[in-house]
Amino acid sequence: MEARDSVGTIAVIGLGTMGTGIAEVVARHGFAVRAIDIDDATVSDARQRIEASTDRAVARDKLTVSERSEILDRILFTTNLQECLTSDIVIEAVPENLELKRQVLGQLDGLLPDRVIWCTNTSSLSVTEISTAVSQPSRVVGLHFFNPAPVQDFVEIVRTVVTDDEVVEQIRVFAEQIGKQAVICEDKAGFIANSLLFGYLNHAASMFEQKYASREDIDAAMRLGCGLPMGPLALLDLIGLDTSYQILDTMYRQGRDRLHAPSPILKHMVTAGLKGRKSGRGFYTYAEPGSPEIVADDHVAKRDASDVSVRGVNAVGVVGSGTMATGIIEVFAKVHHRNHGFG
Ligand code: 3HC
Question: Is residue 319 part of a domain?
Answer without folding.
Answer: no
